[in-house]
Specification:
single chain, mainly alpha, 435 residues
Length: 435
Amino acid sequence: MTNSNRLTAVLDKKALLLNDPVKTLGTAISFVIFSILMSDGVNLSLTSFNIAVFELIFVVLFLFLNQRLISLTLLFNNAIIKALFMLWLVSTGLSYVKLFLSDATSLQLSLATNRYLYTLLHIVFGLCLTSLLYRKEAIAETLLGIIPLSLIIFMMVFAVTIWTFDYLDPFIFFNFPPLSSHMRYVGYLATAGSIIAGYQLIVSKYSSQKTLLFALLWLANFAFLIWLGGRTAIGSVVLVLFIYLCYAWHKNRLFKANAAWLAFTGILAIIVAQSLTIFPWNGLGRLFDKLPFASNDSIGISEFSSGRWEIWKFALDGTADSIWLGLGPHGYIFIPERFFGVQPHNLFIQLIVEWGLVGASLFLTLLGLFLYNSIKVTVSSVNAQTKRLECALLVFMGLTIHSLTDGTYFHSQPIVILIVCGSILAAAILKEKRQ
C-alpha cells in the first residue's frame, strides 16, 4: 500500500468515526469500563496506571471526535458550584505543591505526583462521560449492566482456581487473588453488582423468565459478596436496597412478588456462600466472630473494627501539624506511626489527611450538594429515565456508605464506578437545570 493509499484509509476511518461520534464513543466507553473492571494489576500502582491509561484513551478519543465539554460549560453556569470547585482545585493544588517546599523524600514526591495527576484525570474523564451521557442517556443502561456481568467472570475464574488446586494458602489467596491485587478490591465490584442486580429484580415488570434471570444474577452477585466476607460491603447493599423497598412501598410502586423473590434469593445466597466457605475470612462467620456474644472473651472496639479505630486515631494525630492543608496526596503512608494499609479506611479521615480541613470541607460540601440534587432529579424523573437514575443513585450511595470503613474514594476501580454512576446522575441534573 502506498503512502497516499494509507493516508486515504486513515481519512476514511476518521470520516466514519465522525459520521456518528456519539455511537463511536458509546462503544468506546463500554469497552473502557469493562477493561477497567478487569484491569486490576498485581499491586496498587500498576492498577492505578492501567486504569489511567484506559481513562486517557477515552478522553483523547472524545476530544479527537471534536466533542464539547458540555458538562463543564453547564456546571460553571452555577456560580456557587463554580466557586466551590475552583476553591477545591486551588486548595488541593496547594496541598500538593507544599510538599516540594518541605523535606519530603523523592519517593513521596513521586507517589504524590502520580496520585494528584490521577485525581485530575478522574475529573476530566468524568466531565467527558457526563457530556456523552448528556447527549445520549441510553448508554447508561449498558454501563450499569456491565458491572454485575463482569463479576460473573471473577466468579468463574475464582471457581476454576479453587477447584484446580488441592490447597490454597488463605493469606496468599486473600492478598493476591486471581484478576485482582487484593480480595477487598473485588468487594467494591461485588457491592455495586449486588445493588444493580437487586434493584433490577425489585423493579422488574417482565415475564417470569426475565424475573428469574434477574433473580439468578442477584443470587450470584450477593452470594459472591457474602463469600468475600466484607462486613460493611454487605451492610451497605442490604441498607440501600431496604431504603429503596421502603421508598417504593411509600410510592405504591412495590411489586410484592419481586420483593419476595429478593428476600428468598437473598437468603439462598447466604446459604450458598456459607456452604462454600473454605477460608477464615469467608462468609458471615467473620462477622459473628467479631461480635461480643460470639465468644467468652472480651472484644473491644479495636478488634471489632479490625484495627480501624487505631488507624483513624494515628492518622488524625499524624495530620495535626498540617491540619489545614493536610499531608498532601498519598500522605497517609508517610505517617511514621502507620502500621497497616495505604489509606485510612474512612472517607472523612482520608480527605483530611490528604487535603486538610479546607480541601475536605470543600469536597464534602460539593458531595452533599451533588447527592441532594441527585435525589431531587431522581424523584422527579419519569419512565425509563427513572430506572437509570434510581439504580445509579443506589450504587453511588452504597459505595459512599462503604467508604466509611474502606478506601472506596481512594482506589481507582471503585472511583471509576462512582464516576459512571455520578455521570449518569450529573447529566440528568444538568438537563433539568437547563430546561
